[in-house]
Structure formats: C-alpha cells, structure tokens
Amino acid sequence: MPPLRVGYVPEHFSTPLHFAETYFSLSADLIPFPSGTGHMVTALRAGELDIAIGLTEGWIAAIAKGPPYSKTTDAKPGGNEFKLVGTYVETPLCWAISTGHEKEHITDVQDLKGKKVGVSRIGSGSYVMSYVLADREGWDQPFECLPLQTFEALRKGVNDGTVDFFMWEYFTSKRYYTSGTLYPIKKVGEIYTPWSSWKIVARTPLIDTPEVNSFLEKVNAGIKYFREHKEEAVQYISTQLDYTEEDAKEWMKTVRFAQNVKGVKESVVRDTIDMLQKAGVIEGEAWQEGSEVNKAKKFVGTVTEEHSNV
C-alpha cells in the first residue's frame, strides 16, 4: 500500500505531527491545507486524502449533511466517505473575532449584527462558528458568509471592505493585532468551542486497517515527545511557523493533546450535534435511533466510553 495521504493545517497544533515524522518514522505524505477543514472535506470526498486532522465542528457537520455538503463533482458515494477515528486535542479552541485594523465603527461583537463574515470555505470551522456566534448572541438570522480561502485573504478582506469580520484561532491572529504587519487586524471579541477542538478522520474503507492504526500510534509518540520536549516545541513553532516565541509559550499553557488519540467519545459527538442543530448549522434528525453507541457509529469509526487526558 502506498503511504497514507494525510491532510493537516500548518499551524502550531501540527507540532506533534512534525515530531512524529522527524523522530518516529511516520511514513505518510503530509499535505498542508492552510485553508482548513472545509477544504480537507472536499479533498477526502474527492479521494485525494486518506486521513485528515481538523476541527470537530467541521467534520461532524460534514458527516451529518452527507456527500452533498462537498462541492466536488468526482466524489464517489461510500468509498470516499469518512468517519472520526481519533481525538487529537482535548481542549476547546478559542476563536478570535477580528475586523479591519482601522474600522472605527466596529468595536465589539454587538456591532457585527447583520454584517458580512469572511470564512475560509463553506463547511469550514470558521463557517460553522459564525452560526454558533449568531446563536450565542440571540440573533435569528445567520450572517452572510463569503469564502476567502486563506487567513491572509481574510485579513485583507476586512481591511479592504470585502467583509466586515472573520474568526480564526486566537494565537494565529494575535501577532496581526499590531500595525506594521501585513493586513493588520483588530480584535473585537472571542468565542470558545463548546467541544474538544481537533479530531482525526479516515476514509471509511481504511478504518481499523494496520496502516491507520500505525499512524495513530505514531501520532501518540509525537504527542508524548511534544509533552516532554517543550523547549524544542517552542523553538520549532517560533522559527518554522508564524508565531513569536512568547506566543508559542503562552499557547502551550492552554493546549492539552490527547494521551491516546485512538477513538472518540459518543458524548462529544452527541453534544456537538445538539449545539450545531440549535445554531442552525445542520437540520433534521442527525442522531440515529438505537443505543447511544449505535447512534454514534454514523460518525465514529471507534467509539470510546472514556478518553484519557494529558
């Protein structure tokens, strides 16, 4: 079998994956997707990826909606569908809500009602969280969404008036809150995911294969190395990724990777679906009839009752 094709977002959360490749002979083609989870959904369904690490809300929304959620025209039903196979990060994600650096008429979240939000792609975490934000604020109508693909394009968009605001992970956004950076931005608020933030998915035919199980074991090893070599992690993040040393250290205080990435708790799936339905991201009865574990099997390749924390 050729090496697994693994999609990931090239941000600070990918550091254990880098360590798995560098020190533990992870044999996979690591393919960066800076535009995020929504793009990886499309790539999985087009048969261009075997495994991907992305945001919980994006994966669950895509699975609940089914193949039409992807815009690809060459996806094959069944064979290129995917399920959750692992929990990568246990902690929630802090989404910074940002607008253009000079937009004086937008100073806090209340100024965003009825405004246009920039997202990376339809179905991405930034898209899904715009619905969650509207629901949190009690606004009946979701925002008008404009896909702009990349973090840089989103920063440009809020400065040239293409969109009014966007949401992106806080520490990735933070360094652009000062003038002098490329397309500087201004923070007007934040919102946390009500669920653990990063999950691993695999195409359905590959679930429980030796190749996928080996990949998960290598990721476990990379996480353990990350936990035991924090100075090296900070050096990698601050020299190879777009973060300062100070921000890398602060982020590491907030993140908790799973001790064992294998499996996903059905309660996480259920609670995420409940919130996404309440926010209007998904409609209908996504949670199937039957026992809780059987309901989860639409979404999860391996269901776990408990999940160890670091």
Structure characterization notes:
The protein is of the alpha/beta class and 310 residues long. The chain has helices spanning 15-23, 37-45, 56-65, 125-137, 151-160, 170-174, 210-228, 230-240, 245-254, 266-279, 292-296, and strands at 4-8, 28-32, 51-55, 82-89, 94-100, 116-119, 144-147, 165-169, 185-192, 198-203, 264-265, 303-304. Helix 3 crosses helix 10.
Helix and strand element order: EHEHEHEEEHEHEHEEHHHEHHE
**How would you describe the shape?**
globular
Give the helix proportion (percent range). Answer: 25-40%
CA distance, first residue to last residue = 33 Å
- Provide the gyration radius in Å: 19 Å
Per DSSP, what share of the residues sits in E-state strands of 2 or more residues? 15-25%
Number of helices: 11
**Category by helix and strand content:** alpha/beta
Low-pLDDT parts are 69-78, 306-310
* Overall pLDDT metric: 88
Instruction: Outline the biggest β-sheet.
Output: 5 strands, mixed
Q: List the strand order in the largest sheet.
A: 2-1-3-10-4
Report the strand count: 12
Note the topology.
Blueprint: E1 4-8, H1 15-23, E2 28-32, H2 37-45, E3 51-55, H3 56-65, E4 82-89, E5 94-100, E6 116-119, H4 125-137, E7 144-147, H5 151-160, E8 165-169, H6 170-174, E9 185-192, E10 198-203, H7 210-228, H8 230-240, H9 245-254, E11 264-265, H10 266-279, H11 292-296, E12 303-304
Parallel strand pairs: 1-2, 1-3, 6-7, 6-8, 11-12
Antiparallel strand pairs: 3-10, 4-10, 5-8, 5-9
Concise structural overview:
The protein is an alpha/beta fold and 310 residues long. The protein is 37% helix and 20% strand. The strands form 3 sheets. It has a 5-stranded mixed β-sheet with strand order 2-1-3-10-4, sandwiched between helices. Strands 7-6-8-5-9 form a 5-stranded mixed β-sheet. The protein has a two-stranded parallel sheet with strand order 11-12.
